[in-house]
Structure formats: C-alpha cells, structure tokens
Amino acid sequence: MTGSMQGWCKTVCAAAVLLIGTVAPGAADLAVAESSVVVLGAQTRAEHKQFVASFKRFLVEQEQGVQFVDIALGDDIDNTDGLKDIIRQKKVPLILTVGPEAFQSALRQEADPPLIAGLTHDAAELEKHPNATGVVLDYGVETQLAWIKRILPDFKTIGVLYNPAASGQRVAAAKKAATKLGLKFVAQEVNSPSELPVAMESLFRRVDVLWGLTDPVVLSRQTAKAILLTSFRNKVPFIAPSSAWVKAGALYSLEVDYNDIGVQTGEMARSVLRGKQVSSIAPQQPREVRYSLNLRTAEHMRLKFSGDIVAGAAQVFE
C-alpha cells in the first residue's frame, strides 16, 4: 500500500464513525395553548437545531400568536414525554416531527393532528399516510443524475448498489431518468451487507462512477469503510449521500440547506394552520441544491473540476 493510500485510509477510518448520529431523550412543557405547534424529536445535532430554528422563525413571522411545545424522544414511544396527553387535549393544530424516529413515534401513537415530517428521507413512507407530508432530505433521482452529468460531464456509465426491497422503486425511476439524460445505468442488487464486497468488485469493472443511493442495507456505518476503500483502490468515484462521506473520501455529495428546508417546511405548516388539508400537500424534495467536494480524492483519481464547480461548492475538503 502506498503512502498516499495509507494516509487516505487513516482519514476514512477516523471519519467513518461520524456518518451516523444519535438521538437523546428529554422533557416537555405540557401547558398547551390552542395555537401551539408541537415539535417532536431530538434537537441535539447542529443541523437539527438549524432546521427547527428556521422553521419556528418563519412561522412566528407569518402567524400571529403561534406558540411551540418542544418534546424530545423518550424511551416510551407509546407516550413520548406526554405527547399522547397533549393530543388528547384536542388543541394541537399540527405536529412537526424532527427525524424519522420522531415520525414513527407519532404514527405509533395514532396522532390525529396533521403531521409535517422534517429531516426524513422516505417520501414513499409519507405518501402512505393521508395526515402526513413533509420535505424529504433526498433529492429526486432526476436531480441527482443531472448533477452527476454536470459535475462529471465525461462520465457516461453510472453504477448503483441497492437492495430491491428497500430501493427497487427508486432504481426503476433512476433507470428511466438516466435514459432521458443519455446516461447508461447499471444497477447491482445487494440482498445483505455480506454480499457487498463481491457486488462492488463486479460493478466497479463496468461503470465510470458509483452513485450512493440512500439505502439502509448498502450504506451504513458498517459498510462505509469498505465502500470508500474499494472506490479509492479502483479509482471509481463515489458520489455520496452527505458531506460526512465526502470528508471521509467520497468525491462529492449533494447537500441540503437546513435553513431553507426549515422555511420550506414552515410554508407547509402555514398552509395547514390556515385551513388547507394536509392530504392535499404532496411531499417535496429540497428546492435549493448545495454540494461538497473532496479535491484530494479528485487528485488521486486524476479528475479536475471546472473552476465554477469548485467556486460554487458549499464545502471543499483538501
């Protein structure tokens, strides 16, 4: 292994542990006014705080008298810090859930108020529930493939590793989107993490770039090191789902603007507070696109970004 490879491996090993966050429990103020919006979920991470602060700021500016009750996730998901008691008061106009765990907690309690889901990935899950909508963190497949074509215009064959049960519908949509963009799309099934090494070696021989589709079987803390090292060794760029992966060695990722997502989610909440049925508000993807680049990885793979691409990046790792 070369000195460059050894140094890069140390970076991967150190940074891979940052890819998954944690949720902490807390307590809630149960004094609820009729205009109170419940904010359910942990706000321990910086992006959580940024999102919630932007959401609240927008609603305070738009809706006179609006108040908020913050409830962190507790160990008892059937009565998270008294949420069920708050719901029984029949005063809550809507609930904002922060993260997928909070959304599932609200669903388990059969919450009657409209649910606005924040910081979750699965639009299909939201569509299953008529009293829920939200802004998902993932960009649509059309957006993601269009950005691959923009950032890597000479790369024509896009590969993806996916679990059919978790991501089959998105992969089918991506194949159609790739055809429209003039790209070749190669999808490799992975039914369990143990299949990943063989699947990667097979796929990397056939593609120019690996697109990291958000998939719970394929992308996790346990698989991060293997994916990044295999990408680096084969000089096949890995397009990651977040800047944490880029810091660890992926080539680039699309990023969300948590301030803007807070406003976008707040606009949904304002519509509900003004009488619009939540069932008539379709889930949305982020409207602002940001991205992070790893120039060290690009140099290793002998890739050069155009000047405007580097200048437009939200984060650049060197």
Describe what you observe in this structure.
- The chain has 318 residues and is α/β, with parallel strands linked by helices.
- The protein folds into two domains: 3-19 and 140-255 and 290-317, 3-Layer(aba) Sandwich (Rossmann fold), CATH 3.40.50; 36-138 and 258-280, Rossmann fold (3-Layer(aba) Sandwich), CATH 3.40.50.2300.
- It contains 13 helices and twelve strands.
- It has helices at 3-16, 46-62, 83-88, 100-108, 123-127, 141-151, 164-180, 196-204, 221-234, 243-248, 258-273, 295-300, 307-311, and strands at 36-40, 67-71, 95-98, 115-120, 132-136, 157-162, 184-189, 209-211, 238-240, 252-255, 290-294, 315-317.
- The strands form two sheets. The chain has a seven-stranded mixed β-sheet, with helices on both faces. Strands 2-1-3-4-5 form a five-stranded parallel β-sheet, with helices on both faces.
- Helix 2 (46-62) packs across helix 11.
- The relative contact order is 0.15.
- Mean pLDDT is 87; it is low at 12-32.
